[in-house]
């Protein structure tokens, strides 16, 4: 019996020594990924925050690629799946609001789903569109409303770290100079009870960026950039 116990200790020591250091930070951390939009948008309205009289469509249909013609909901699920595997590989527990396009999930539904998982961080993946075809770059949105007072500062911190890591891996431009956009009007933020960020991974209305966004290599750079940011967010949080 004793030798079994010794063997057990040796195995535990072995695992702890050779365990990937990144996984030690990720252990037990829960990430909820919300790939934006879906095949068919829902125009019916829902309140933008609990108790608010201000209403917005339950889920919009999103943008589409100017060259690729790819809908945003397809692109962001491709990237979200890469992010899911990247985070799982690093030891995070990952939940997804959707893994197919044929779903009917409003932004409130998505926030409530993530709330039920008590995530350390929710990542809502979206892509941008602009009437100005020259605009390009990445920015990360974070909540800044009074509804979200309790999660604003942690979300902002995560957004600041994630945008910098995203720029390192993608070499993209920071949209609006800072690459950060505080928001008070997003339903998906206002219903969140846990820190949440929304990376707008690039402009599908920009020819060059649209094409780049659909390549596997660039999508992987986005996934790794966000995952590096998540790792760093926890390391900073530990100090
Ligand atoms: Zn979107």
From TrEMBL:
CDD domains: MurNAc-LAA. Pfam families: Amidase_3 (PF01520). Its EC number is 3.5.1.28. Residues 111-231 form the MurNAc-LAA domain. It comes from the Bacteria. It is an enzyme of class 3 (hydrolase). GO terms for molecular function: N-acetylmuramoyl-L-alanine amidase activity. Keywords: Hydrolase, Signal. Residues 1-26 form the signal peptide. PANTHER family: N-ACETYLMURAMOYL-L-ALANINE AMIDASE, N-ACETYLMURAMOYL-L-ALANINE AMIDASE AMIC. This is N-acetylmuramoyl-L-alanine amidase. It comes from Robertmurraya mangrovi.
């Amino acid at each position: 019996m004793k030798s079994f116990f010794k063997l057990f200790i040796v195995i535990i020591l072995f695992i702890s020594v050779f365990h990937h250091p990144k996984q030690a930070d990720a252990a037990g951390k829960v990430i909820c990924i919300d790939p934006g939009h879906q095949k068919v948008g829902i125009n019916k309205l829902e309140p933008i925050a609990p108790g608010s009289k201000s209403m917005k469509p339950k889920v919009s249909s999103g943008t589409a690629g100017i060259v690729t013609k790819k809908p945003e909901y397809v692109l962001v699920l491709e990237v979200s799946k890469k992010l899911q595997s990247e985070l799982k590989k690093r030891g995070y527990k990952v939940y997804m609001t959707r893994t197919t396009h044929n779903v009917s999930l409003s932004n409130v539904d998505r926030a409530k789903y993530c709330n039920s998982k008590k995530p350390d961080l929710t990542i809502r993946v979206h892509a941008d569109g602009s009437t100005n075809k020259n605009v390009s770059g990445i920015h990360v949105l974070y909540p800044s409303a009074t509804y979200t007072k309790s999660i604003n500062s942690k979300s902002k911190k995560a957004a600041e770290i994630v945008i910098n890591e995203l720029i390192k891996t993608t070499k993209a431009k920071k949209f609006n100079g800072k690459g950060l956009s505080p928001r008070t009007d997003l339903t998906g933020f206002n219903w969140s009870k846990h820190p949440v960020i929304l990376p707008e991974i690039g402009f599908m209305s920009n020819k060059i960026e649209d094409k780049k966004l659909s390549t596997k290599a660039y999508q992987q750079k986005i996934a790794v950039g966000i995952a590096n940011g998540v790792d760093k967010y926890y390391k900073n949080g530990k100090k």
